[in-house]
Specification:
The structure holds 2 protein chains of 2 kinds. By secondary structure, chain A is an all-alpha fold. Chain A has a single domain (71-306), classed as MetI-like (MetI-like fold, Orthogonal Bundle). Chain A is built from 14 helices and no strands. Chain A has helices at residues 13-33, 38-67, 71-80, 82-115, 121-133, 136-147, 154-159, 168-178, 181-194, 197-204, 209-238, 241-247, 257-266, 270-304. The longest helix of chain B is centred in the middle third of the chain and has 18 residues, at 169-186. In chain B, helix 3 (91-100) packs across helix 4, helix 3 (91-100) packs parallel to helix 5 (139-152) and helix 4 crosses helix 5 (139-152). Helix content of chain B is 26%, strand content 36%. Chain B has 9 helices and 20 strands. The interface between A and B is large, with 30 and 49 residues. Chain A: It is a multi-pass membrane protein. Chain A: Keywords: Cell inner membrane, Cell membrane, Membrane, Sulfate transport, Transmembrane, Transmembrane helix, Transport.
Chain lengths: 307, 344
């Protein structure tokens, strides 16, 4: 049984040349589309640069300038304050809990929505978006209504000596609620686009449900998962409104970094306030860089799935 | 393995994808499910594979109830139209997948898995692509890898869903021949779905023609081509002329024009007459059952295709040999060498 089947993998030299020519042609056509006079172009670009400088670059510079205004020593001394250390620790703990929970919930929700058909699917998608459409302060208030002293479960919780509000559980709950959509939102379109054929192939080859998930589904969405986790983490660490309502502002105990920044600022401790703010700003910068890298990987993944 | 399907019904909402299908597939057969899109052929294949479930009916493998098993237990190889290769795995790992996910008790050791994958890649003549990723392969190569992957688990039968549907015409023809010789070599019961009659007639031992969730005809490629059982089959297979005729008092009429054709055994009433284009023989005026004027003539590969306005009012296209003298404006007689008339 010998059959030769034509390969389309390697391009011949003439084909490559033809493609290069087509590309040059397209570039020339693009140039022709730029009909605005030079002066208009310069004004528009200058406006854009000015806007970015005033609203993005300047604030960032101010944060770091203020933080270091009394020198490096004062900066590190402010960060070494027990109150600051406690806030950093609490922020990390809360972010770890809510990112962990939302990773699991987001994966499960996206898997169900993208790979299965069931009644109430649209409703579920709407529910997932709810935290984005509600003001964070309201999200916090909901938990006060549920678990506060006058809330539905307040009496029962007090009787059993369980502390939710004004403690780590309340802050973690509020943060989890506010950051719930990130992972699911990152995954649903990705998984819907990938369809279910690879899973069907895996099952017909004898794989169990778990094997299919870990060997086929998860590797296909790993960059999407990291992307969702990254954004979820950034928001979890920076959340202010919802946390502010449920935290109780107990110094050294229930203040997260954003809350502490506000308190210190209101007490005119500018170096300390901006020192902590600089940490949050750095988190934002790192998030942006990692996000760019991840987006490149996500695009590559899409190219690889092109038929 | 023999596959038997009894009275299968599957509805999507109010649309009946399968409307009472009975089918028996013999051991070692290469069977084609042929039909237009929406005829239920893919649904039937997916139900046999366990990727879909019927509303009612039975499916049995070697006499055992297959519906009691999930796709995982049925041990059936499935090949998808769009290949469904695992995009994050190399060609080698794709083929090895079915061997690696087996329960520990029966799983082969690494060396035997490697040997088996090598053997399969040799079989599909693509061993030199083992380290590539699916995105680096051409369509024809992807489909052959998908076939090797399905064969890795030594399936009891092989199910192919429009396996060549996404490929260009040249590669499709090559793969067709290749599939037939592969089947000859491994001889596993195989069913493939296609909407391409040429593909079905060329590759399969037996053809099942489906329409609107029902089986219209089961037979050898010769059977379905030479003696179509229903009007649908006749119209779907081969290039056909279809004429509305009236049968009354032992005479067949096209419009007002009586045709010189025997009406023995035909049910009176409105009927349809089917003739293949190349079965209309051209003669001098008055020589055949029909008469018409040639409108124009085009050369079309080995034949010339002529548009003819019949004196009964219809315009048809016929295929005549290239050496036959035909010119626009000629009046000719036409005699159907073979034809079928279906009531309704």
């Amino acid at each position: 049984m010998t059959m030769q089947i034509a390969d389309s993998v390697s391009l011949s030299a003439s084909e490559a040349k033809a493609r290069a020519k087509a590309r040059a042609h397209a570039a020339a056509a693009r140039d022709n589309l730029r009909t605005e006079p030079r002066a208009v172009r310069i004004v528009i670009i200058a406006l854009a640069v000015m806007f970015l400088t005033v609203f993005v670059v300047l604030p960032l510079v101010v944060v770091f300038a203020q933080a270091f205004s009394r020198g490096l020593l004062a900066y590190f001394a402010a960060l070494a304050e027990p109150e600051a250390m406690a806030a950093i620790e609490l922020t990390l703990i809360v972010a770890a809990i809510s990112v962990g929970l939302n990773l699991v919930f987001g994966l499960v929700a996206a898997w169900a929505i993208a790979k299965f058909d069931f009644k109430g699917k649209t409703f579920l998608i709407t529910l997932i978006d709810l935290p984005f459409s509600v003001s964070p302060v309201i999200s916090g208030l909901v938990f006060v209504l549920l678990f506060g002293a006058q809330g539905y479960f307040g009496t029962w919780l007090r009787d059993h000596d369980i502390q939710i509000l004004f403690a780590v559980p309340g802050i973690a709950l509020a943060t989890t609620f506010v950051t719930f959509p990130f992972v699911a939102r990152a995954l649903i379109p990705l998984m819907q686009e990938q369809g279910t054929q690879e899973e069907e192939a895996a099952i017909s080859l004898g794989a169990s449900g778990l094997q299919t998930f870990f060997r086929v589904t998860l590797p296909n969405i790993k960059w999407g998962v990291l992307y969702g986790v990254l954004l979820c983490n950034a928001r979890a660490m920076g959340e202010f409104g919802a946390v502010s309502v449920v935290s109780g502002h107990i110094r050294g105990e229930t203040n997260t970094m954003p809350l502490l920044v506000e308190i210190l600022y209101n007490e005119y401790q500018f170096v300390a306030a901006f020192a902590i703010a600089s940490l949050l700003a750095m988190l934002a910068l790192i998030t942006l860089i990692v996000k760019t890298v991840l987006e490149r990987h996500l695009d590559e993944g899409e190219d690889a799935s092109d038929h | 393995m023999t596959i038997e399907v009894r009275n299968l019904v599957k509805k999507f909402g109010s649309f009946a994808a399968l409307d009472g299908v009975d089918l028996k597939v013999d051991n070692g057969e290469l069977l084609a499910l042929l039909g237009p899109s929406g005829s239920g052929k893919t649904t039937l294949l997916r139900i046999i594979a366990g990727l879909d479930w019927p509303d009612s009916g039975e499916v049995s493998f070697n006499g055992e109830d297959a519906l009691a098993q999930g796709a995982r237990e049925r041990h059936v190889g499935f090949v998808f139209q769009h290949y469904a290769l695992f995009r994050h795995m190399t060609v080698f790992e794709n083929v090895a997948f079915g061997l690696r996910v087996q329960p520990r008790a029966v799983r082969k050791d690494e060396a035997s898995i490697r040997a088996r994958v090598k053997e399969l890649l040799d079989l599909v003549e693509l061993d030199w692509l083992a380290d590539r990723y699916p995105s680096q392969l051409s369509g024809g190569q992807r489909q052959r890898i998908a076939l090797a992957r399905a064969l890795a688990i030594e399936p009891r039968s092989l199910l192919l869903d429009e396996p060549f549907g996404a490929l260009d015409a040249k590669v499709r023809k090559e793969l067709r021949k290749w599939l037939r010789s592969l089947h000859h070599e491994i001889n596993v019961t195989s069913i493939f779905v296609t909407h391409d009659q040429e593909e079905a007639l060329e590759v399969a031992n037996r053809v099942v023609v489906m329409d609107k969730g029902r089986i219209e005809q089961i037979g050898s490629p010769d059977d379905v081509y030479e003696t179509p059982a229903t009007a649908f089959v006749h119209g779907f297979i081969g290039e056909c002329i279809e004429l509305p005729v009236q049968v009354a008092d032992g005479v067949i009429r096209l419009g007002e024009q009586p045709l010189k054709l025997a009406a023995d055994g035909l049910v009176p009433g409105a009927s349809r007459l089917f003739v293949r284009r190349h079965d209309m023989l051209v003669g001098p005026p008055g020589s055949g059952a029909f008469e018409g004027a040639v409108q124009h003539v085009r050369n079309f590969g080995p034949v010339q295709r002529a548009e003819v306005a019949l004196s009964g009012g219809e315009t048809i296209e016929i295929d005549a040999p290239r050496d036959k003298e035909l010119r626009a404006g000629d009046t000719i007689g036409l005699e159907p060498r073979r034809y079928r008339i279906f009531a309704g």
